[in-house]
Write a structure and sequence with these properties.
Blueprint: H1 2-10, H2 21-30, H3 34-42, H4 50-72, E1 79-83, E2 86-90, H5 92-98, H6 100-107, E3 117-119, H7 125-137, H8 149-158, H9 162-181, H10 187-199, H11 203-215, H12 217-223, H13 225-229, H14 233-242
Parallel strand pairs: 1-3
Antiparallel strand pairs: 1-2
Length: 248
């Protein structure tokens, strides 16, 4: 039963470590876990590698259910967050399991551990929902983009979620690269992203912004001189040193 519940919670497939397949099959049948029943049927056969594909399909199905039932419908939510523009429901158990800061907040002697409504100043409902999408599904929300990523990066950094920060960076950099490939000028956007990213420990995105500004330095000087002059002296010095084309 423990393994069945483990599969239902996170889709883990460690059948090879199980010795009593018959009891495991009974548990899967009792809980009507069709995906696990299929995996157990494949166990011991040459095509057992298909079990990994079934696990992945189940994980995608689980993500959809988490979004539909838990996040969008708020089913069995047990905590409310007071945000800048309204109230948003959530689930303590998921927050505690996925975020160490939340775990400390709800498990320790802090007032939030017994509060029914937790104030979360400086965070909008849109940004908080994007956070919950990651915590509930381990995926970055599709609505996150280069235009709205900064509040989410700040929140992810505040909650000590470096993997989430890296995932946001990956999505934003991919978007910026695609824009460059389409001939869209991204220098103004990268100038605005650069220093907030450095503040919020989004180092990979900050490095990409520096590189993009440096290789388009002449265009930046021509079109975005005011933004360039507002940068920190260290960033200006780096760009002067690494600009392309260089000044001989």
């Amino acid at each position: 039963l423990h393994h069945c519940l483990r599969f239902l919670y996170c889709g883990m497939n460690d059948i090879s470590a199980q010795r009593n397949f018959s009891k495991l099959k009974e548990g899967a049948a009792l809980l009507n876990v069709s995906e696990l029943q299929e995996i157990l049927t494949l166990a011991g056969h040459d095509d057992y590698h298909l079990g990994d594909e079934l696990c992945q399909k189940y994980i995608e199905k689980l993500r959809e259910r988490m979004l539909t039932m838990c996040l969008n419908a708020g089913l069995f939510s047990d905590i409310l967050f007071q945000l800048e523009d309204g109230i948003f429901p959530a689930h303590k158990s998921i927050l505690i399991a996925r975020c160490d800061v939340m775990a400390a907040m709800f498990s320790g002697d802090f007032c939030e551990s017994s509060a029914k409504i937790v104030p979360f100043p400086g965070v909008s409902k849109e940004c908080f929902k994007q956070l919950l999408v990651y915590l509930y599904t381990d995926k970055v929300d599709q609505t996150v983009s280069s235009a709205n990523c900064l509040p989410l990066l700040e929140l992810a950094n505040r909650l000590c979620l470096p993997r989430f920060v890296a995932s946001i960076e990956e999505k934003v950099v991919s978007e910026l690269i695609e824009m460059c490939q389409k001939g869209i000028n991204t220098t103004e956007l990268t100038l605005k992203l650069l220093e907030p990213c450095q503040i919020h420990n989004a180092d990979q995105l900050a490095e990409w912004c520096l590189h993009n500004i440096a290789i388009n330095y002449n265009s930046v000087c021509l079109n975005n001189m005011k933004l360039l002059r507002k940068l920190h002296p260290e960033n200006q010095a780096y760009l002067n040193k690494n600009r392309w084309p260089p000044v001989w």
